[in-house]
Amino acid sequence: HWRQLLSLLGAKGLLAGAPARSPATGPAPGAPAPAAPAPVPEPRTLLRGSLPLVADADATTARLHRAFGFLLAPPLLVPLLALVLAMEAVVAARSGELLVAAKGLLANPVLLTGTAVLLWVSTALHELAHGVTARHYGGRVAEIGLRWRLPAVIMYCTVDDYLYFGTRRHRIATALAGAVMNLVFLLPFCALWLFAPLDDATHDAFAALLLLGSVQAFAMLVPLPPLDGYRIAGQLAGATGLAASAGAYLRLALRRSPEAAAYPRRARIAYPAYAAVTVLVLAGTVAAAVAATHHLLTA
């Protein structure tokens, strides 16, 4: 948090030694634009590391926002969200059929590879959606790149000043944008699956993509760090370090320590509520996994 704060101050020329700025007009005439202190990159190895993909992530995100930012306007966003809800209702209603299709996909290496590639593209768009939404609300994207923890290779998008957006609604929208993008990405495949005259193998591949893509999107909303759902939970609770803080409070409360009673009332409500919601979400996830396994074994 201190590193983020100092980077933000450096970018705005508010640290000692930075070029002088005028409160009204920004940098002094002729002064170079102040740059945020460069983060120390993690060592790259064959098994783990990260690699920036663009020289100026903020400028890249600005171009993407100019091209696609119109999708964040309510007249377009609301119908898109309605289509996503309708699609997920279909996925839930026909989940048994989709599960069987996903199991059958394992027997077709070509379609399995194609589905895996599409899911990776969805993950990349997930990260870019965070950046474009942050830009829409005045944020600054510091880095866009690839991160690998073999065998996983994913894209990442770092937003410098996420915690300093003007309103809580903007921070929640930025955190939610990735999962929404995952689901919007599935809409054309859902339309093809429902209405296009496809051969059986392609029809089943699209069915599997719908199920796996939906699971991918909702998995990101589980309220555990470092997932997007955890960021949303932190904003709803008005807290940073929510998981660690809730754990510390609950340990005190279970021991009936007087220190627990000294917590502010809002914290005494938010921390147990976060723990309860997390347990319910994890229990629901386990129950869904058990039900899916039972269906596949008995179908």
Output the keywords.
single chain, 299 residues, mainly alpha, 3-stranded antiparallel β-sheet, two-stranded antiparallel sheet, 11 helices, 5 strands
Give an account of the 3D structure.
- It is a single chain.
- The chain has 299 residues and is mainly alpha-helical.
- It is built from 11 helices and 5 strands, in the order H-E-E-E-H-H-H-H-E-E-H-H-H-H-H-H.
- The strands form 2 sheets. A 3-stranded antiparallel β-sheet has the order 3-4-5. A two-stranded antiparallel ribbon has the order 1-2.
- The longest helix has 34 residues, at 265-298.
Secondary-structure blueprint:
Elements: H1 2-11, E1 21-22, E2 26-27, E3 48-52, H2 57-68, H3 74-93, H4 95-105, H5 109-136, E4 141-149, E5 152-159, H6 168-195, H7 200-219, H8 228-237, H9 242-254, H10 258-261, H11 265-298
Antiparallel strand pairs: 1-2, 3-4, 4-5
Helix pairs in contact: 2-5, 3-6, 4-7, 5-6, 5-7, 6-7, 6-8, 9-11
Which consecutive residue ranges, at least 5 long each, have pLDDT under 50? 22-36
Principal-axis shape? globular
Largest sheet: 3 strands, antiparallel
Cα-to-Cα separation, first versus last residue? 50 Å
Number of helical stretches of at least 4 residues? 11
The percentage of residues in β strands lies in 5-15%
**What is the average per-residue confidence, as pLDDT, rounded to a whole number?**
88
Helix and strand succession? HEEEHHHHEEHHHHHH
| Structural classification | mainly alpha
The strand order across the widest sheet is 3-4-5
Question: Could you tell me the radius of gyration in angstroms?
Answer: 22 Å
Query: Tally of extended strands?
Result: 5
Helix content: 55-70%
